Amino acid sequence: MADKIRLLPDAIANQIAAGEVIQRPASAVKELLENAIDAGATHIKVIIKGAGKTLVQIIDNGCGMSETDARMCFEKHATSKIHTAEDLFDIRTMGFRGEALASIASIAQVEMRTRQHGEALGTLLEIEGMKVTRQEPCQTPEGTSIAVKNLFFNIPARRNFLKSDPAEMKNIIEEFTRIAVAHPSVGFQFFSNDYEMFHYRSGNLKQRICAVFDDKYASQIVQVEENTYALSVTGFVGKPEFAKKTRGEQYIFVNHRFIKSAYLNHAIQNAYDQMIAKDAFPFYVLFLDIDPKRIDINVHPQKYEIKFDDEKLAYTFVNLAVKHALGAYSVMPSLDFNQEDHLNRNGTFDQVPDWLKGPKDGGRGKEENPYTAATISSFNKKPETPRERSNMRNWETVFQTEVKTQQQDTQQHFIAPHEDDKLLHKEVAMPYQLHNRYIVSHIKSGFILIDQQAAHERILFERFIMQLAHNNKSSQRQLFPQSIELNAEDTQIMHEVLHDINALGFDIQEFGKQSFVIHSFPSDIHAGDEKRMIEELLEQYKKNLSISKLNKRENIARSLAQGSAIKSGRKLSIEEMSNLIDELFACENPYTAPGGRFTFVSFNIDELEKRFENK
Q1: Alpha carbon 598 to chain centroid distance?
Q2: Whole domain around residue 448: which residue ranges?
Q3: Do 574 and 440 share a domain, yes or no?
Q4: How many Cβ atoms sit within 10 Å of the Cβ of residue 175?
Q5: Is the alpha carbon torsion for 151, 154, 155, 159 positive or negative?
Q6: Tens digit of each residue's pLDDT (9 = 90 or more) over 86-123
Q7: What's the total number of domains in the chain?
Q8: Residues 283, 376: one domain?
Q9: Full-model pTM
Q10: How many angstroms from the chain centroid is the CA of residue 9?
């Protein structure tokens, strides 16, 4: 039998490896920016065209490379940062695997110009699909310029897998922002299709935060600083009253490397316990400086994840550092640090493992529902004739036959009452509210239990879909327009969805690079909630991007419905409950909310009687 196992050609092996390291244009931006940082650059320019599909170019004023190094850097596993196996346990640079440039060169057309400081000439290299097509001396500024053109040009299937330009730009801006926040001493410029989107001058961390997010953050953040011999936590956290409904302003860096850690995020969120709503997210930019021997960063292709040798201690240290900062700046009403096992009465760490101790040890001497004012004023209007007919059909569908729910394990089913059940619901037994969350509506053969939030989401979703399809919007003008400031990522999303949002009755206009002004809003939305509504819409929109079956308009309609629906805890009048029921059963699909949650379940009297039998 012939042998079957053979080595892959280098070109194919590099393309496979590139799939792990370079997944999209944002991956190339991240890797090239990290290389520029490691090269000691004090100013970096990012040039993007076609959302990175056409061009990603990084220009830095770092140390540059010799002619030999310029050629060697594109070889697989070529690196200047690892010499022995022990070096893997003392990594202090951003890049170290020697995979990035080799991976990029295997799937793109690359042009690099580089010159070392003090040298008269630099080196020009052109590579296409790992093949060097040109190498010669050239005139170029000190530092390095790498232009990555036509990403995935030789792998059409991978290129077709890329998302829309706005979605890819969102990812690029996300990576750029992480690097810019992590390195405030470096100046950055960012150009997209020849338009300068961002220009950050070098400075300290607080100045960079104000530049990236907004100048007003200077008064909205407090400093965090806790130090031991082998671990320190520094940075800034937001005051509780400025927590937002959207994610995206939470950054954790370990040895200046951005990481994703649900564990540490929970530690920070827990420090705000009872100070912010459960669905709110505080701002934080925190840096953990730790002995590299105590972590493993080589566990993820994009190096987003790390392992601590003592995760529980890292959790406790971060949690208490944030609590200490909030308490020191009188943000928290009271903090008794003596109750914490790891703190002594001076607010320093007592029970610290041996590896944290050293000569430098000692450290430093009723949830509010944001939508309680949400309106359901639309329920005060009687449905139009077509909706009345739809209402009647849905009532008949629900109540003329027994229809089991899709959730079989609940053993609940819809009831088949007598024909006059609709009259009973409206005239004989008025609906009432249970725990300000559910609506109980009597029918002759039992009752139905309606989830008021899920029901309202369904109503609004179908209304918004109809408005988007027929451009039938209803707006109310604001006497005093509201302004809203967004971070870079949310600004990009806003540009993507702005046209469709305005088609729903908003009138939102751009006012500066990351600022927008709300002039009008849909008549279905209660005045005063517009700013929070937009934040909620953007957050839901980002969450829904992972649902492939949703197109952009469906995503917008679902996101706005989820953000503007009445919430659990909202007390409703009898008239509001009755109109909600009418509106629900006028929907094409009254059974589930847009996300799939049931809007109501029904209970049969016979079924209830059996539950009371003692057999």
Answers
A1: 26
A2: 369-615
A3: yes
A4: 22
A5: positive
A6: 544 555 555 544 578 888 998 999 999 999 999 999 99
A7: 3
A8: no
A9: 0.65
A10: 39
